[in-house]
Amino acid sequence: MTSREELSNEELSAKLTELSEWENQMSHTEKQLEITRLKKVHPLYEKRREILKSIPKFWYIVLAEGDEFVEYVNLDDLKYIEFIDDIYVYYPIADTDVSEDNFKDFSITISFAESELIPKQTVTKHFKTIFGEEGEKITSEPVDIIWPTDIEDLNPRAIKQKNKGKQLSTEDKKNYRAGMRSFFAWFQWTGEKPGKEFRNGEDLTNL
């Protein structure tokens, strides 16, 4: 095999171009394989979703016993998590004609059953995967959720709206900081406001 030292600058440049083209082909192939996988497993996850809905407190057990989840939320959130009866991750590329450029975009739907602690509701949060020089990054659209009544005063968005740009009182600051650590603050997370929104939003999303 010809060593690199024996290649002229022009030859080396040509080889590097070939390598770059190969990497592009490999990237395209991996992308197509992932799209095919998402399409194939979609009906299976639909079936799994219905099975899990019939298992009482399935999601509470999974989340409450997961070491990582409890690191990202307030422990007080767990009594509301008990009423989650559906969590579903959906990739539009699996069954729609969306652009393949957005094949990693997805949504997470979370449903709460009726209870005295939190209203019955279903909330869908949408995510985009941004490809950059430093790798992939997830961003999201904020979405409204009805907070449990007994922690409604911790809702950061409600606190901001109440004060309308005014300086927060000591009590509001305390509540704001506590609310920013709540699972319910994750629904407003965008991934574009470091230090000013729910912490570890991308980590929680990827669990």
Automatic annotation (TrEMBL):
What superkingdom does the record give? Eukaryota
For this UniProt entry, the molecular function terms from Gene Ontology, in alphabetical order, are: acetyltransferase activator activity; histone binding; identical protein binding
The cellular component terms of Gene Ontology attached to this UniProt record, alphabetical and capped at eight, are: cytosol; H3 histone acetyltransferase complex; nucleus
BP terms from Gene Ontology: DNA replication-dependent chromatin assembly; double-strand break repair via nonhomologous end joining; nucleosome assembly
- Which Gene3D superfamilies did the record assign? Nucleosome assembly protein
Extract the InterPro entries matched here: NAP-like_sf (IPR037231), NAP_family (IPR002164)
Q: Which UniProt keywords apply?
A: Coiled coil
Task: Show the coiled coil region(s).
Answer: 12-39
The record's listing under Pfam families reads: NAP
Family the UniProt entry places it in: Belongs to the nucleosome assembly protein (NAP) family.
Descriptive protein name: Uncharacterized protein
Q: Which organism is it from?
A: Spathaspora passalidarum (strain NRRL Y-27907 / 11-Y1)
